[in-house]
């Protein structure tokens, strides 16, 4: 796989080609990745995969017109053809009053933070196989597990480079290591499946494979024999594994492109107290070894640590160049970039701060409620804030987790859910978007 210096050189060359062919502005983004994974099932090797990919994307501006194009052909004649085609496409495109590059005075400068995003480790297929086997073996050893979907271990590396004609040129490398296991419990028509996984930048930060396996096995076994639940309003408690999705809906509604399209339920609520005043949601782009850590965004603008929600209120909108121009906002360092096309918007490492009560204390006064461990379906409307998802988990009776339940629907509106949210004290920073266990009273639950 290429290094960041080679990726930067390719981006420089492509931007220069585009300028020579008539582009007023241009930027190029290069991505490369390699990964190796090993999967096992029932103690036997099932698959060994290795993949590598390289891609470069070019975006050009001719006046107020723009076009984007990408390729995996890095031959000089191929890149020259790419640049020429992009400029021709831009000349035929409609004018965009808001497109453009980030201005020079907004670009990230200096050395930045050493984010420690790769350990350089390349475990052998044998090492990956042993880790996958250990995870699956531990899962299968849990009493009640009847079959296995398998265990897996993988390692990957990536390179990113961005060059703009406005003066930005940076590249960086990253890596990740993943362990997972998935098993089956129950017999006949009452088979249940679940999983556990963990991804870390450094292999030494992964849990022991046996811990991953045990978690997968225990999660699966406790789901066997599910019942239903009466249909009515009741307290609903979200496991952190699914609770992060609720935070993700907030981030999606805070995206400035959604605001510009008038496609967010947060429009007009910028100064409203959406959460309890004790709730704080924080973004940490400079977290060492963070899964979403970065010094700069997909347009070269510095990423800044900030509170996204404080005193119950949002800080504002997450912008890129186009949406900031359309809404007359400042740049917040939230542009995201794929291999080609225009930038989108994405936050980096985000978490909701832990609350005071333990999980046991959080549910202690719930006479009848629902503890959600799995969510299904896409019934969330970010334009209206309506929320409706299929769910399974456990019934809460007299302050304790009781029988497993499934085939349930939970519903509400995101503003109402935010106002009622109470976090527990069990926050772990393991996913990139993290929350503690949290409780929301008064949700509509539809069961039997």
From TrEMBL:
Residues 231-447 form the Metalloprotease TldD/E C-terminal domain. InterPro entries: Metalloprtase-TldD/E_C, Metalloprtase-TldD/E_cen_dom, Metalloprtase-TldD/E_N, PmbA, TldD/PmbA_N, TldD/PmbA_sf. Residues 121-223 form the Metalloprotease TldD/E central domain. Residues 26-90 form the Metalloprotease TldD/E N-terminal domain. Belongs to the peptidase U62 family. This is TldD/PmbA family protein. The lineage of its organism: Bacteria, Pseudomonadati, Pseudomonadota, Alphaproteobacteria, Sphingomonadales.
